[in-house]
Design goal:
InterPro entries: AMY1. It is found in: Nucleus. GO terms for molecular function: transcription coactivator activity. With about 100 residues, the chain is an all-alpha fold. It has two domains: about 55 residues, no CATH class; about 45 residues. The chain is built from four helices and no strands. The chain is elongated and about 90 Å long.
Amino acid sequence: MAHYKAEDSKREQFRRYLEKAGVLDALTKVLVALYEEPEKPNSALDFLKHHLGALAPENPEIEALRLEVAEMKEKYEAVLEENKTLKAKLAQYEPPEEEMPGE
């Protein structure tokens, strides 16, 4: 009987841990969304993965990386434009290829 109480206590601690972490609420919301879907998806597991991922709180590191990627894209576009401009300026000063000596 004491063994049963110890397992029950561990289960209750684990349940409280899940509740405190918000896991039970997140699972409940996703399962309710799946239940309320008019057309059930072919893969319930994929549905759960997709919707649980959407419920996950945003990691600050991920947001910082997204901002960095956006900045890098802007810099890349600016460098491409500058490269295009410089090539056009250079083309003004280079003789046409058919006039090059030695060919």
